[in-house]
Amino acid sequence: MRKKANKDKDIIEVPLNGDSSAEPTYKAKGKVWVEKGGEVYMGWGRVELLEQIDKLGSIAAAARKMGMGYRNAWLEVEDMNRLAPKPLVIKMLGGAGGGQAILTAEGQKIINEYKELRTRFQEFLENFR
After folding, report:
1. Which of 35, 45, 92, 98 lies deepest, with the highest CB count within 10 Å?
2. pTM of this structure
3. pLDDT (average), residues 46-71
């Protein structure tokens, strides 16, 4: 299970009152995720997982960094790879030094596309001010 602190990062929040010096009376909030066939394909947590895999080169290390179980991280990667048009992560089985995981060009592409989608969603919320 992920740490609560990371979970709140997926919420986009925009104050709605125009006076930025006062505590906002109303806030628009939302989350963005992408589904394929009714299954979650990409969301903020999965993007974070992909970025940690890219940085650390390991699903296990990425899971530890995010405070999530290795099995859950592995299953998330399996689901993403299954739903993606091309694999997002290439996994190499461990040996004496352990396994490796490599983010593919397709993985980097979906990270960029998802972040762009979040930016557009935030801009949409900001238009209510």
Report:
1. 45
2. 0.84
3. 97
